[in-house]
Write a structure and sequence with these properties.
The strands form 3 sheets. Strands 2-3-4-7-8-9-10 form a 7-stranded parallel sheet. It has one domain: Alpha-Beta Barrel (TIM Barrel). It is globular and about 55 Å long. 40% of the residues are buried. It starts with a helix and ends with a strand. The chain is built from 14 helices and 11 strands. It is of the alpha/beta class.
């Protein structure tokens, strides 16, 4: 089976033999690994000044970075981050990766349209809006979903994309940024629509959020994604408990503690990896991953240590 096929089998919770699939939402250490600036760190102003020949070179390099990352670190999926972030650039990137790798890798891009935790400059205004103009907030939520599905229709007609990762963060380490009741009013109905629309177009859907998801786990499951990411241990999310509660309903992705990868000891990293594998793998429906991503400032050696344990111990019997 190709990595893409194994990734899909895990999303569908079908049994696998051999190594459990692996991917990361983002691998930002491209400068350390390949001597290349990550596409997300490119300057948009420079893009606007480029001639088309320069833009094509830029597109080729973006595709090359994503492919080299997947190859070197044995990732089964490529989460594309086109820069600039337009549907036209999605298509350029899809075509370049498919031309070079065929159907080897599962291709996805960001596709969330639901409200996430506002930043500090917008939090107060957003909270006031929920009470002062709730119907306007809901109308905006609906418009965002409609526009996302319209974009997805264009990508579905073009072909080559396998799915979406929905990366709106809903939770702090202490819990959701909205109460479960508010979440059920302003988020869940639109998340349900969004995922149903993507599924109807033939796409797989991974729902990502950091933090403590347990108070809204039932609502996330109600939205019917194929997988939940990142099962954040820093938010108190225990993969063993989530597996027990819903491992027969949804694929689980993640749970290797990013904080320990960054500041913990080697022994703590190994322990975190083993815990995620031990409790995520049984019965299938698990994809190995960190609890966020391989972010700027993390030591590449720590990611490689994590993968060493996965290669040795993350294998289903024949």
């Amino acid at each position: 089976m190709q990595p893409r096929e194994r990734f899909i089998a895990a999303l569908e919770r079908r049994p696998l033999t051999g190594r459990v699939p692996h991917f990361e939402l983002v691998f930002f250490l491209t400068m350390e690994a390949f001597g290349k600036v990550h596409p997300s760190h490119r300057n948009y102003g420079q893009w606007m000044q480029m001639e088309e020949q320069e833009r094509n070179l830029h597109r080729d390099e973006m595709a090359d970075i994503f492919i080299r990352t997947a190859e070197r670190f044995e990732q089964s999926a490529i989460f594309m981050h086109p820069n600039p972030n337009t549907v036209e650039e999605d298509i350029h990137l899809i075509d370049r990766i498919r031309e070079r790798t065929g159907d080897r890798y599962f291709l996805m891009r960001h596709g969330d349209a639901t409200f996430s935790i506002p930043d500090g400059t917008q939090m107060t205004d957003f909270v006031y809006r929920l009470y002062d103009e709730p119907e306007k907030v809901k109308a905006e939520a609906q418009q965002r979903v409609d526009e996302a599905l319209e974009r997805a229709q264009t990508l579905a007609r073009h072909g080559g994309l396998d799915g979406f990762a929905l990366c709106a963060d809903y939770c702090f380490n202490s819990g959701p940024f909205l109460s479960p009741a508010q979440f059920s009013e302003f988020i869940t109905p639109y998340l349900v629509q969004l995922i149903a629309g993507y599924r109807a177009l033939g796409f797989y859907v991974i729902k990502h959020t950091d933090g403590n998801i347990m108070p809204i786990l039932d609502q996330l499951l109600e939205a019917n994604p194929h997988a939940l990411h990142s099962l954040d241990p820093q938010g108190g999310v225990d993969i063993a408990e989530v597996k027990r509660l819903c491992g027969n309903r949804v694929c689980l992705i993640g749970n290797v503690n990013c904080g320990l990868l960054d500041t913990g000891t080697d022994e703590q990293v190994v322990e975190s990896v083993r815990y995620a594998l031990t409790h995520g793998m049984p019965g299938g429906g698990y994809i190995f991953s960190t609890s966020n991503c391989i972010y700027t400032g993390m030591r590449l050696a720590r990611y490689e240590l994590m993968l060493d344990v996965w290669r040795r111990e993350g294998n289903y019997p024949a």
